[in-house]
What we know:
This protein is of the alpha/beta class. The protein has 14 helices and 20 strands. Strands 5-4-6-1-7-18-2-19 form an eight-stranded mixed sheet, with helices on both faces. Strands 8, 15, 16 and 17 form a four-stranded mixed sheet that branches. Strands 11-12-14-13 form a four-stranded antiparallel sheet. Strand 9 (272-275) and strand 10 (278-282) form a beta hairpin. The model has no long low-confidence stretch (mean pLDDT 97).
Amino acid sequence: MVFALPATAAPVLMISIDGLRPADVLQAEQRGLHLPNLQSIVAHGTYASSVRGVLPTLTYPSHTTLITGVSPDLHGIGGNLTFDPYNKNQLGWDWYASDIKVPTLWDAAHAAGLHTANVHWPVSVGAQVDWNLPQIWRTGTPDDRKLLAALATPGLLPSLEEKLGPYADGIDESIAGDRTRAHFAVALLESHKPDFMTAYLTALDHEQHVSGLDTPQAKAVLGQIDELVGELVDAAHRVHPDGVVVVVSDHGFLPVQTDVNLYAPFLAEGLITVKDGVVTDWQAAPWNDGGSAAIVLRDPNDAKVRAEVDALLERLQQDPAYGIASVLDKSQVAKGGGTPLAQWFVMFKPGFEMGIKPDAPVQSPGHYRGMHGYDPSLAQMRSTFLMQGKGVQANKNLGDIDMRDIAPTVAHVLGVSLPQAKGKSLLP
């Protein structure tokens, strides 16, 4: 059976630039940035002045919202890493699309008989995608390459590598890795002509973590990403002259100076038990989200432990050493669309982040120079939305939008159904 897009619909290329702040594009000249390809999309298309994100403002929960139109409480991806209080998953990330509890844009396109492709989008292992190069890594050794080849669409990676050379390792977040993945995405576009394609670029996020915001290094990386966007857009236009290009990001960024050891108080209170450096038991534990931390109870019905944790969090909030801006209770977490696993959310002040070492002092120098994961209401956590192509008004500013509006907007362009989405289409 041959399917075709509805007459009013258009193919979509959806590009994510991790950590791209809206002002990076909308105020590029003032920031000393040369981004002709991204600015061309603004001039000839529709864009948001900012995008309000989800709780927490992290890559994996946000990208799943971008592809489903619902917040983490409904789509099921509550953080970057899986919640793993016994540390048995070897820092495993939430890579698997089977963990997404609602239909995605890939699913909706498939149901409509459209062809799909993906390069490196988070939470895409096993996704219902015709030509899929998912994001995954384990150790950064050569075995990772075998793992990706096995989890990608059968035969796809070897056939592309025959023409293009080695694909980038999943753990590689450098601009060189982005360049390789962009070239593979161009090849996928040209060879398979998918109706809906997702592509993810990660080097800006990596550089802002390592060197900080607005550094020469970060600006240089963003300039090179703009060139890759130009290559992807050109390829999309060659393949689908009547198509639409959507550029998104997942979160903003804040400078950070201080790591906070939030594990230590839980250890001191006996809420986490460690023997010979190994967690042997736990009653309550933090789930590290960078600029915030979900607090999870093993038994949410244990009133005694709940009261202990409630009192502990109250004390920590009063101690300036912990850098806590606020603590959200269960009802506030639910209102914010956070994971149902979280009984509380600790929101750190700008400049503070949750540390990664349980034996560190209360405060130590930040292991990163830039971080996200902070309260989504902060202006600095706002992300980016740009769209250009068939039926899209030129130079139109949508103002501040909700991240949940993006998936139904893409569904509208594709002419597919995404009924569970909590947002609305941004197009007439």
